[in-house]
């Protein structure tokens, strides 16, 4: 599941300086959305590139699909919101009493209007009747934002169970800790959180919680080295990331997608070259590398701006942006391995002492590997077609 962080920055936050501070913190932290009032949409666009949702309070919000009209009036798209949100100063926030019959709801009528744009509902959960109102709104809304004034986990559990598949459920939170709980509730969690907090550190921590919630945790295993031999020269790929790697991090690469070897980043000091804590010397151009979506790419396909998966020795993963790919002809080793299930997999790695794998004895240079050593890999008994796992019989050797 893809998670998202929204940051609340409407007029309840304070004046424009207060709102701008929140929006700037959201941009710098990597939040996905800001929720503002209609009059601030253009000013948000001037601050940076982020999805903008605007509260509809007077029926005049300019929408993404109103392109021709907006461009006629302004000459550009600066005043367009990416989504409208209904409920502020209405029934959703209890400014107006809920009707006994929801068919007479003004908020729901607004949501039901035709239009090819994202629509959101904003509902404070003040009782079971507001839970029912949120459920009804979710039938029309792309995003259903639910706010608990005296928040308990039960209303969120109810809403996840009842409307989780119909809409993007956005839970209102005031801290990263609450966001973590929202993402974990019922082991499914909300799709997103709406953070109402001024502290830039809290915004950053909430974005980190989002990233952690979306990441895989892989079961790595040991494989025995059957054979290691010089294999002549090949086009070798170094993957340089736009982020620094930790000492116990690397990438999963291999000649066969079902068995990907853990190769350390070049974070260790060497008497021969300086450390390059952004680099993984990943192997030959034909090899696979694992990506954050659980797929694979050929090393030859990678280019600046792509994402690759970084993994540590415990199988914890995160994404990293490729900053540069270096392909050069270098002498290689062919390494043959036997997995715990008895399968044989192979890969090519450069013949150089700076390339390290994770052995049972610790970090080890490929130039020191011997038959009988055990090294870490990720094994997945599945075939791949264009990087996607498929139920198909494929022979690789």
UniProtKB/TrEMBL annotation:
<dbReference type="InterPro" id="IPR056179">
    <property type="entry name" value="DHQS_C"/>
</dbReference>
<keyword id="KW-0560">Oxidoreductase</keyword>
<dbReference type="InterPro" id="IPR030960">
    <property type="entry name" value="DHQS/DOIS_N"/>
</dbReference>
<dbReference type="GO" id="GO:0008652">
    <property type="term" value="P:amino acid biosynthetic process"/>
</dbReference>
<feature type="domain" description="3-dehydroquinate synthase N-terminal">
    <location>
        <begin position="3"/>
        <end position="209"/>
    </location>
</feature>
<dbReference type="Pfam" id="PF26558">
    <property type="entry name" value="DHQS_2nd"/>
</dbReference>
<comment type="function">
    <text>Catalyzes the oxidative deamination and cyclization of 2-amino-3,7-dideoxy-D-threo-hept-6-ulosonic acid (ADH) to yield 3-dehydroquinate (DHQ), which is fed into the canonical shikimic pathway of aromatic amino acid biosynthesis.</text>
</comment>
<dbReference type="Pfam" id="PF01959">
    <property type="entry name" value="DHQS"/>
</dbReference>
<dbReference type="InterPro" id="IPR002812">
    <property type="entry name" value="DHQS"/>
</dbReference>
<dbReference type="GO" id="GO:0003856">
    <property type="term" value="F:3-dehydroquinate synthase activity"/>
</dbReference>
<keyword id="KW-0520">NAD</keyword>
<dbReference type="GO" id="GO:0102042">
    <property type="term" value="F:dehydroquinate synthase activity"/>
</dbReference>
<dbReference type="GO" id="GO:0051287">
    <property type="term" value="F:NAD binding"/>
</dbReference>
<comment type="similarity">
    <text>Belongs to the archaeal-type DHQ synthase family.</text>
</comment>
<feature type="domain" description="3-dehydroquinate synthase C-terminal">
    <location>
        <begin position="223"/>
        <end position="397"/>
    </location>
</feature>
<protein>
    <recommendedName>
        <fullName>3-dehydroquinate synthase</fullName>
        <ecNumber>1.4.1.24</ecNumber>
    </recommendedName>
</protein>
<dbReference type="GO" id="GO:0009073">
    <property type="term" value="P:aromatic amino acid family biosynthetic process"/>
</dbReference>
<keyword id="KW-0028">Amino-acid biosynthesis</keyword>
<keyword id="KW-0057">Aromatic amino acid biosynthesis</keyword>
């Amino acid at each position: 599941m893809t998670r998202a962080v929204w940051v609340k920055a409407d007029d309840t936050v304070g004046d424009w300086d207060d709102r701008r501070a929140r929006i700037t913190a959201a941009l710098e932290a990597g939040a996905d959305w800001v929720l503002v009032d209609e009059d601030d949409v253009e000013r948000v666009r001037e601050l940076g590139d982020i999805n903008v949702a605007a509260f509809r309070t007077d029926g005049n919000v300019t929408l993404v699909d109103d392109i021709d009209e907006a461009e006629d009036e302004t000459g550009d798209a600066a005043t367009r919101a990416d989504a409208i949100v209904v409920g502020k100063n209405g029934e959703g926030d209890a400014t107006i009493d809920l009707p006994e019959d929801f068919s007479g709801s003004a908020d729901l009528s607004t949501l039901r209007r035709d239009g090819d744009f994202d629509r959101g509902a904003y509902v404070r959960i003040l009782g079971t009747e507001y839970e029912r109102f949120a459920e009804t709104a979710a039938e029309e809304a792309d995003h259903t934002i639910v706010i608990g004034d005296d928040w308990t986990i039960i209303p969120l559990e109810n809403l996840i169970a009842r409307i989780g598949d119909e809409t993007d459920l956005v839970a209102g939170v005031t801290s990263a800790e609450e966001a973590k709980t929202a993402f974990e509730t019922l082991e499914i969690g909300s799709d997103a959180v709406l953070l109402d907090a001024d502290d830039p550190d809290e915004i950053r921590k909430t974005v980190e919680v989002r990233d952690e919630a979306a990441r895989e945790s892989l079961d790595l295993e040991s494989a025995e080295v059957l054979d290691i031999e010089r294999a002549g020269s090949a086009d070798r790929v170094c993957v340089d990331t736009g982020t620094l790697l930790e000492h116990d991090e690397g990438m999963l690469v291999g000649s066969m997608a079902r068995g990907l070897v853990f190769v350390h980043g070049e974070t260790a000091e060497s008497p021969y070259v300086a450390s390059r804590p952004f680099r993984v010397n990943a192997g030959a151009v034909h090899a696979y590398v694992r990506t954050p979506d659980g797929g694979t790419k050929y090393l030859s396909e990678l280019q600046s701006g792509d994402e690759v998966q970084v993994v540590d020795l415990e199988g914890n993963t995160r994404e990293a942006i490729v900053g540069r790919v270096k392909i050069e002809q270098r002498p290689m080793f062919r390494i043959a391995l036997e997995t715990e299930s008895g399968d044989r997999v192979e890969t090519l790695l450069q013949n150089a002492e700076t390339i390290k794998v994770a052995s049972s004895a610790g970090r080890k240079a490929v130039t020191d590997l011997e038959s009988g050593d055990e090294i870490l890999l990720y094994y997945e008994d599945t075939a791949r077609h264009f990087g996607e796992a498929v139920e198909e019989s494929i022979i690789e050797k």
